[in-house]
Amino acid sequence: LRERPSHLENLSVIGELAASAVHEIKNPLFSIRGFLQIIDNSFSEDDKRKEYTRIMISEIDRLEGLVRDLLMLAKTRIGSDESVTVCELIRDIAELYKNRMEMQNIKFSLRAEDESACILGNREQLEQVFINLIQNALEAMENGGNIEVVTSRKNEKVVIEVRDDGKGISPEAEKKIFSPFFTTKKNGTGLGLFLSKKIVEDHRGRIYFQSTEGKGTVFFLEFPVQNGEDRQAENPSE
Ligand code: ADP
Ligand code: MG
């Protein structure tokens, strides 16, 4: 359907290499973290050295997140596109976060104008986009709140809004949130939105946002719609 530039094929080799590199990096990190935890436990609360072990552990967690995000970045589209039902995808992800939302006192709702709206693409990558957005929403609402996802059809586009009533984005940060490594979080990687934008654009889509500090944020996603008739026309054998 879409011309795939040959450099993307090279990237998929890099993706495989990155996957094994990530494994090789994670194992030693995990073992370092384990021993540090033992050392940390052996210090009393008022021991100055406990502060150092805490910092080391939190830096290891940051490295782990970084490595995970870099892997996603290196992985490119492997396999063919499929029809992804947006609402199904979003419900699956909400299910994944159910416990965490309950614990954090967050209410989740999905409002779907067209339950069967489909987009054409790689399910795993599209999942990653919504995981990133919902994760960010959760992190912006430490004291509870609402996450609302609204899906609708506008002409030949599927529009998905991910709304939260969290702390919002400051005007200074607004310019930078899609840049790699920009983060305002202690343990953030700053790769989530960079990655999401890359995936969305790879799907011929668009991502943008509106935010008010102290009130909340809405992320908008637009993808070309793939409806029933198109599907049949493209795959007459199905
Ligand atoms: P990370 O989550 O690792 O910080 P992201 O790329 O996902 O990296 O996000 C970059 C930054 O954008 C965040 O650190 C945060 O400042 C801001 N941000 C993203 N989504 C939201 C949101 N829903 N509410 C408030 N701030 C957000
Ligand atoms: Mg994030």
UniProtKB/TrEMBL annotation:
Keyword Transcription applies: no
Domain Histidine kinase: 20-227
Reaction equation(s) it catalyzes: ATP + protein L-histidine = ADP + protein N-phospho-L-histidine
Keywords, ordered alphabetically: ATP-binding, Kinase, Nucleotide-binding, Phosphoprotein, Transferase, Two-component regulatory system
A single GO molecular function term of this UniProt record: ATP binding
Record has Oxidoreductase as a keyword: no
EC number(s) stated in the UniProt entry for this protein: 2.7.13.3
Designated name of the protein: histidine kinase
Protein's organism: Thermosediminibacter litoriperuensis
Lineage: Bacteria, Bacillati, Bacillota, Clostridia, Thermosediminibacterales
